[in-house]
Amino acid sequence: MSVRPIAIAQAGSPLTDRPTARRLLELDWFLLLATVLLIAYGVVMGYSITVEDRTFTGDIGQQVLRSILYAVIGLSVMAIVAFVDHSWLGTFAPLFFLGTLALLAIVLVIGTSTLGATRWVTIAGFKFQPSEFAKVFMVIVLAKWFADRDVRSPFALLGALAILAAPVALVFKQPDLGTSLVFLGMFFGMAFVAGARLWHLATIVAVGIAASPILWTMLKDYQRARLTIFMDPYSDPQGAGWNIIQSLIAVGSGQMTGKGLTAGTQSPLGYLPIAESDFVFSGLAEDLGFVGALILFALYIVLLLSALRIAHRSRDAFGTYLAGGVAAMLIFQIVVNVGMAISLMPVTGIPLPFISQGGSSLISICFALGALQAISMRREVGPSTQT
């Protein structure tokens, strides 16, 4: 991918910039199709896993309707954001940054604790996870930062890390190690797309490795166990390695075509933990087998290639970095979630995009993909913002 010239992304059209018929022709239909199919896949898997979950005592029909409602809201948000010139997102980047800090701070004050972590906030009966929206907002903030500066300078990279410091610290405090790592994955992906010198990025990695003993002491005992047990889960099969072992059993038992929807056994028997979120890929592999996983990966590839194509064809640097950041965020989450299900990555609680149950994740991703559609529809029309 060629590096875009430095440009300042400034709003050049009305905030409610309604796309013309010509612009609608520039809609990325592959991205839209992959998004709709992935959302449908998530709804189906949500139903299957809910039926299999012996601890679920609610109304399955209402649960499915809730998933469909989140899907409708997500697609609506995607459409609304696509109507806005993406340059406006860069113009409001400071507000997105302040909003991120406010949302994450609110979690620590009035958040709801679940499984030892405080990540959810309930306002007016609506429960959501602010860190999911924080990821997308920080992609916008970093894209604006890199678009306004020469990323080949180490000071631009250090400035971006300084911007990330507060959100990472607030998320780590919840504690949510997984989302903290997503922020760092986004940083490296966006810096690479922006054309940062590789030896600068390597230096940052080296400094991080050198500081790892200090960071290690800041982790809780269960977090340290999760970061090491994946290499040999059978060393503690009844303790820290239990989740990974049961996940491997679920994935392996699915074989080629799976046991069938709602026919999985690991979750009903109480063995597969958090099957609707952290280990949702394990449940999918058990129900639909290798074929089901292959279909999922094919849809992801179409989605990600569409995002990277939009990044390459953007009319300005801000759009390129924004699209590249969304792709980096999704790639990191997919690799880590699937990796931890098959014992290639530590268990960090990162959701699988579209498939893990939760309205916050789905709606925030749809917001990001709406921004990508906005970039796609304006790649050849509208005022140029390059300088």
How would you describe this structure in keywords?
three-stranded antiparallel sheet, disordered C terminus, globular, mainly alpha, disordered N terminus, 387 residues
Helices, strands, pairings?
Layout: H1 21-25, H2 29-52, H3 60-82, H4 86-91, H5 93-110, E1 112-114, E2 117-123, E3 126-128, H6 130-147, H7 154-172, H8 177-193, H9 198-218, H10 221-229, H11 242-254, H12 280-313, H13 317-341, H14 359-377
Antiparallel strand pairs: 1-2, 2-3
Structure description:
This protein has 387 residues and is mainly α. It has one domain (33-377). Helix content is 65%, strand content 3%. It is built from 14 helices and 3 strands. It has helices at 21-25, 29-52, 60-82, 86-91, 93-110, 130-147, 154-172, 177-193, 198-218, 221-229, 242-254, 280-313, 317-341, 359-377, and strands at residues 112-114, 117-123, 126-128. Strands 1-2-3 form a 3-stranded antiparallel beta sheet, covered by helices on one side. Helix 6 (130-147) runs parallel beside helix 8 (177-193). The longest helix has 34 residues, at 280-313. The relative contact order is 0.19. Residues 1-9 and 381-387 have low confidence and may be disordered.
